[in-house]
Specification:
The structure holds two protein chains of two kinds.
Chain A (H helix, E strand, L loop, with lengths): L7 E10 L5 E11 L4 E5 L6 H9 L6 E6 L2 E2 L7 E4 L11 H5 L1 H5 L4 H14 L15 H14 L4 E5 L7 H16 L7 E6 L2 H7 L2 E6 L4 E7 L13 H18 L8
Parallel strand pairs in A: 3-8, 3-9, 6-7, 7-8
Antiparallel strand pairs in A: 1-2, 1-4, 4-5, 9-10
Helix pairs in contact in A: 4-5, 7-8
Chain B lengths: L7 H18 L5 H8 L12 H31 L1 H15 L7 H11 L4 H29 L3 H9 L4 H30 L1 H5 E4 L2 E4 L3 H10 L3 H30 L18 H13 L1 H42 L1 H22 L4 H9 L7 H32 L1 H14 L4 H16 L3 H29 L3 H9 L4 H35 L1 E3 L4 E3 L3 H11 L2 H29 L8
Antiparallel strand pairs in B: 1-2, 3-4
Chain lengths: ~260, ~575
């Protein structure tokens, strides 16, 4: 793969928060994201990985450096890049269908086209029959399904995920991970480049093609590891090779932030 | 969780000299004090006597606040910790707080004047109790809400570690109460100032009891047509409110933040210092790190205070939300018991106030002609409140959303609003009236206008603060999601902001109508000595009935007001709250 084919090019991105003290959240972070890739960003809390994701989406601007999406500078959120939130970020006063239609409505799509697309993506996350339900009536796993459908409905090229499974119980998270991977590989769904932020090393090795590791204070990129494990990885997850990847990543993180990290996963 | 410690240095500063002063006054309670009170005051700009006006007002406020705190702690903690007590204590509290300050006046005056045989002490105590009735509810709800927000795992952990009774009270309950107690106290002081005049210029049964104080000074000066002196008095009041906020509530609020259970990171408040303070600190750090460290809390407090105030207000509002929805939902029996106890209390008070031959008095009363005017009075007040409410809602909605979304406006305007809301409504009446007389030549329309303007002052702040607080409380992930999916401008306001603040608008409306009813007393009738002005309404009826000592009519007017408030709560607001229940963000 050549560098020119990259979907996202992150070049020397730094972010400084001015406050009581200057916080250097990110410093000179550079990497590329390629089409059809599942990329995970891993690191200890406070390493700026969520800030990085927000800069990729255009929600936040870097203090210096730049993000290019298909060669164009990212300065504001665009429908071509969509996002899934850790705490779901659903609007409590809108039902499932209305929440999924949020981005479509903002694009000014006519009602009928909106309904059709919403129905398609509600079905793809297995929520058919729940269109009229309100978020408060749904379980955590179902809420995140709504979040996924909402992000997919605008048919973006890149899907960003900010710790999408960390507010779910492990069983639900496990199911949802597999479903997200299925969506990623589904040829009928146009979105095929996924970038996920996580602090769960097992999750990263299970899902990613490539893992980049950030260290904290300042947030800098310390490793870029390609995961060469066959898919699907349900059974692979029990093999020595899989454990080796986990160990390797944890040792890189611990090298920069002390041994306490290993207990977090 | 550590013990409960308040930094003593801050609030003892103003309290000690005042307490000292109070002590020195005790020996002269007698003839000399009497001489002061019988002195015919002509409030003149140059006669503002600090000893007699400002200090006396402060002492009254502090004593009333002290009483409120004692009451709030006992009542609030009992209501929150005992399920059985809660069932009737909370409904009673809800009813008592909806009675306007003036509604307590006849009972309080009769009681204290008879207890002290018409002595000055009786008048003073009556005034303090009246201020107390304007302060106590906010503190009590704060305390109650504080105990209610103790997370279950905390209380369970405390119990499993054997922390019980006084230790539980000291280590768990008091720290949990602390933040809402402070916010309740700030509201209470605002309420106290707002009704200060009514509490220092007591007019009952054709007699006026004047208590030398700042409120009296402001009002008397206005009555005498000395607007300059009146405005001067108001300015002094504003300065005092500002000083108290800065010296007492700012640091306490900041300190209380550490006792909150929720995470204290407000979205959009990562940068709490303005550019100027940031540069200042940078320069100072060059000189000396210690110096910068010492200066920093002083200059940053200003910026943290108002977000804190708003957040606490918001929490307070949510407590009310909880109380109202929970009360109606779960405990019909409890609210029934509460209502019955309330009625029994009312009857007992009634029996004390009304002449002993009740049946004859009742028969006489029913035959009175002026009863026929009640519906038109009620209609007049409701119409005025409605107009005031609509004006208040439209301007606060626009202003609230704009202010909450702009950090610069927020930092610039909140301090102004915070003080403006404490300005006593009665103080404004003479000023507004003089404008009306000049421009409308005292016409009916002009008076109606003046009345609506004054009602507005009693309503708008509740709406404004609730709206700003709610806009600020929209979770950051929801804001980001809306931006991510391209919601902008009006689409964002319509799809996100308006639904998000709807519960706060409704709760603000309930409070605004409560405040509005209170303000009708100050806005429908004024006696300028030579001439009286009035518009037909229940506030006017209450004013003249109190002035004449017409107790049965006072009770009827209060009953009618309370009835309308109750009816509106039970129908419009209860229904709306139920509708917006799903609008709440989940924790």
């Amino acid at each position: 793969m050549t560098a020119s084919s990259a979907v996202l090019r992150v070049g020397g991105v730094s972010k400084v928060f001015e406050g009581n003290q200057k916080i250097r959240a990110l410093e000179a972070v550079t990497f590329d994201v390629f089409p059809h890739e599942f990329l995970c960003i891993v690191g200890p809390s406070g390493c700026g990985k969520s800030t990085l994701l927000r800069i990729l989406d255009g929600l936040d601007l870097p203090t210096s450096g730049q993000v290019l999406f298909n060669g164009e500078l990212v300065t504001a959120p665009s429908p071509k890049i969509s996002m899934i939130f850790q705490t779901f970020a659903l609007l409590p006063w809108k039902n499932v269908r209305e929440n999924v239609e949020l981005g479509l409505e903002a694009q000014g799509l006519p009602l009928r086209a909106r309904r059709e697309k919403a129905a398609k993506y509600i079905e793809s996350v297995g929520l058919s029959g729940f269109e009229e339900a309100y978020p408060r009536e749904l379980s955590g796993g179902m809420k995140q399904r709504v979040g996924i459908a909402r992000a997919l409905a605008v048919e973006p090229e890149v899907l960003l995920m900010d710790e999408p499974f960390s507010s779910l119980d492990e069983l639900t998270a496990d199911t949802l991970r597999k479903e997200v991977l299925e969506i990623w590989r589904d040829p009928t769904i146009v979105t095929n480049t996924f970038v996920m932020v996580t602090h769960n090393v097992h999750e990263a090795v299970f899902m990613a093609d490539r893992i980049i590791i950030l260290r904290a204070r300042p947030g800098t990129l310390v490793a870029d590891i390609t995961v060469e494990l066959p898919r699907p990885r349900v059974k692979v997850a029990q093999t020595q090779e899989f454990f080796d990847y986990e160990k390797k990543i944890i040792s890189v993180i611990e090298q920069y932030s002390g041994p306490a990290y290993g207990t977090q996963t | 969780m550590g013990g409960f410690r308040v930094r003593p240095d801050y609030f003892i500063v103003p309290v000690i000299p005042l307490a000292f002063y109070l002590l020195t006054q005790i020996p002269v309670v007698g003839p000399s004090l009497h001489a002061i009170y019988s002195y015919p005051y002509t409030a003149d700009l140059f006669q503002l006597n600090w000893d007699n006006f400002v200090l006396r007002t402060m002492i009254r406020m502090i004593l009333a606040y002290g009483l409120s705190v004692a009451f709030a702690l006992v009542y609030g903690i009992t209501a929150a910790m005992s399920k059985r007590a809660e069932q009737f204590l909370i409904p009673i509290l809800d009813i008592l707080q909806s009675i306007p300050v003036l509604g307590y006046l006849p009972g309080v005056i009769i009681l204290f004047l008879s207890l002290f045989n018409g002595n000055i002490i009786g008048q003073e105590l009556a005034s303090i109790i009246l201020i107390f009735t304007g302060m106590v509810w906010a503190v009590t709800f704060g305390v109650y809400g504080g105990v209610k927000t103790i997370p279950r795992d905390i209380s369970e952990a405390a119990h499993s570690f054997g922390i019980r009774r006084t230790k539980y009270l000291r280590d768990v309950v008091l720290p949990a109460i602390y933040p809402p107690f402070i916010s309740g106290s700030i509201l209470a002081w605002g309420g106290g100032w707002y009704f200060l005049i009514a509490c220092e210029y007591l007019s009952f049964a054709n007699k006026v009891y004047q208590l030398p104080g700042l409120g009296f000074y402001i009002f008397k000066a206005a009555l005498d047509g000395n607007l300059t002196a009146s405005i001067f008095g108001l300015l002094i009041l504003v300065v005092i409110v500002g000083i108290i906020n800065r010296l007492i509530w700012h640091p306490l609020m900041d300190h209380a933040e550490k006792f909150k259970y929720e995470s204290s990171v407000l979205p959009g408040h990562r940068r709490m210092q303005s550019r100027a303070t940031h540069l200042l600190l940078k320069e100072l750090r060059k000189v000396s790190d210690d110096l910068a460290a010492a200066v920093e809390p002083v200059v940053t407090l200003e910026h943290r205070y108002y977000p804190h105030v708003l957040r606490f207000r918001h929490a307070n509002t949510l407590t009310h939300f909880h109380i109202r929805t929970a009360w109606h939902k779960h405990s019909r029996l409890g609210s029934l018991i509460g209502t019955v106890i309330g009625i029994v209390l009312a009857i007992i008070i009634f029996r004390i106030l009304v002449p002993p031959r009740l049946p004859e008095a009742l028969r006489e009363f029913v035959l009175r002609r002026d009863l026929a005017q009640l519906p038109s009075y009620a209609f007049g007040s409701v119409a005025r409140l409605l107009v005031g409410y609509l004006i208040a809602l439209s301007w606060t909605l626009v202003a609230g959303i704009v202010i909450a979304r702009s950090e610069r406006l927020f930092n610039a305007l909140l301090p102004v609003f915070d003080i403006a809301q404490s300005v006593p409504a009665l103080a404004l009446f003479p000023i507004v009236i003089s404008v009306v007389i000049n421009y409308f030549h005292g016409s009916e329309l002009g008076l109606e206008l003046a009345s609506v303007v004054l009602v507005l002052t009693g309503m708008q702040w509740y709406l404004l603060f609730n709206i700003i607080g709610a806009v600020k409380a929209i979770p950051s992930d929801v804001i980001e999601a809306s931006r991510c999916f391209g919601l902008r401008g009006l689409g964002y306001i319509r799809n996100v902001v308006l639904p998000a603040i709807l519960p706060a608008i409704i709760l603000g409306s309930i409070q605004a109508w409560g405040g509005g009813w209170n303000a009708t007393i100050a806005s429908e009738y004024i006696n300028l000595g030579t001439k009286t002005y009035h518009v037909a309404g229940l506030g006017y009826l209450l004013d003249i009935s109190v002035g004449r000592g017409d107790t049965p009519m006072v009770l009827v007017a209060i009953g009618l007001m309370a009835g309308i408030v109750f009816l509106m709560n039970r129908t419009i607001w209860h229904y709306s709250l139920k509708q917006v229940d799903k609008y709440k963000f989940e924790a």
